[in-house]
Amino acid sequence: MTSREAQDANSKTARGLTIPRLNLFGDPLFPVLERGTYAHNYPTDNHAIPGGGPNPTCPLYYSNGRDWLPVCGGDGAAGATGATGAAGITGPAGPTGATAAAGNTGNTGATGAGVTGPTGPAGPGGAGSTGPTGPTGVTGPTGPIGPSAATGATGPSGASNGADFFALMPGDNAATIALGAAVLFPQDGPTLGGGVTRLSSGVFQLANVGTYLVLFQVSVGEAGQLQLSINGVADPNSVAGRATGTSQIVGMSMITTSAPNTTLSVINPAGNSTALTITPTAGGASAVSAHIIILQQA
Q1: How would you write the chain as a 3-class SS string?
Q2: Are the C-beta atoms of residues 164 and 190 closer than 8 Å to each other?
Q3: For residues 52 and 297, what is the distance between their CA atoms, to the nearest angstrom?
Q4: Cβ(182)–Cβ(229) below 8 Å
Q5: Contact, 231 vs 256, CB < 8 A?
Q6: What is the pLDDT of residue 14?
Q7: Among 173, 176, 177, 175, residue whose Cα is nearest residue 187
Q8: Which residue from 55, 48, 8, 1 is spatially nearest to 25, judged by alpha carbons?
Q9: 187 CB neighbour count, 10 Å cutoff
Q10: Which of 39-43, 108-112, 253-257, 284-288 has the highest average model confidence (pLDDT)?
Q11: d(CA 170, CA 167)
Q12: CA nearest 265: which of 218, 198, 176?
């Protein structure tokens, strides 16, 4: 044990023990222990102590059995640090602090890319009734004009040449038309282009090579036939006729010529057995016409 530790032990022993006594002035002195004991910080007032009174710089005192004597010396070396004491118990929780001011709102996070969930089951009640038809919207503006269509192919040309020749009965065709002979159309009607002309009362000339439409109508008194003759040759594809009565014989044909200045006539076919009478005033008192119309088509 060091001298300081011994002194401390003596101090602990000395504290609380009193030996009351009076000084020369009759005042009670501080308790003094038996001789040979030490005490820290005794005495602590200003009573006279042999040796000059309390010494505030001297923390240790010695008892001689009658007085406290200061024992002053240099501090000894610091003792070793004692072991760390056991942790004290946790103190009570402090009061709740004041609520802090609200912070700034953070930026909106990016939109998530979750997958669409499955379609839920149909609700009860079934489909509702169809609502009323809404009002008709306003008519939109007229759209722009579309592009022009391509030019179509050129159509066929109209007749470039033609003529109408006719007869009026009574007067014309007074004699019967013999087998193989031509019906006479001695009068001229309108003409077109000058390419169709007459050579005689019953023969007509087609100046140009081409295709022609030929129409004829003649009233006769007997059952009979008429046909076209081209360059003096009967055309078997152009025969028209009637079996009974006094109606007209009407014929129409398309012919194609192979040489310029082809001739054309309407004849009583040579293979028949009867001459034909051109009816004068058929059906009434007015003169009756017979016509041949020739139109070049191409």
Answers
A1: CCHHHHHHHHHHHHCCCCCCCECCCCCECCCCCCCCCEEECCCCCCCCCCCCCCCCCCCEEEECCCCEEECCCCCCCCCCCCCCCCCCCCCCCCCCCCCCCCCCCCCCCCCCCCCCCCCCCCCCCCCCCCCCCCCCCCCCCCCCCCCCCCCCCCCCCCCCEEEEEEEEECCCCCCCECCCCECCCCEEEEEECCCEEECCCCCEEECCCCEEEEEEEEEECCCEEEEEEECCEECHHHCEEECCCCCEEEEEEEEECCCCCEEEEEECCCCCCCCECECCCCCCCCCEEEEEEEEECC
A2: yes
A3: 170
A4: yes
A5: no
A6: 42
A7: 173
A8: 48
A9: 17
A10: 253-257
A11: 9
A12: 198
Confidence of residue 293 (pLDDT cuts 50, 70, 90): very high
Residues shown for the chain:
298
One-letter amino acid at 98 equals A
Domains identified in the chain and CATH numbers: 1-76 (no CATH), 161-296 (2.60.120.40)
CA dist 193 and 164 (Å) reads 12
Q: Which of 13-22, 69-78, 133-142 has the lowest mean pLDDT?
A: 13-22
Residue type, 135: P
- Cα separations (Å) of 186 from 150, 167, 243, 265, 278? 50, 6, 27, 12, 14
Structure token pair of residue 122: 């149909």
Distance CA 70, CA 56 (A): 10
Residue type, 42: Y
Q: How do strand 204-206 and strand 233-234 relate by DSSP bridges?
A: unpaired
Side chain identity at residue 134, one-letter code: G
Radius of gyration of the chain (CA): 80
> How is residue 276 written in tokens?
């034909």
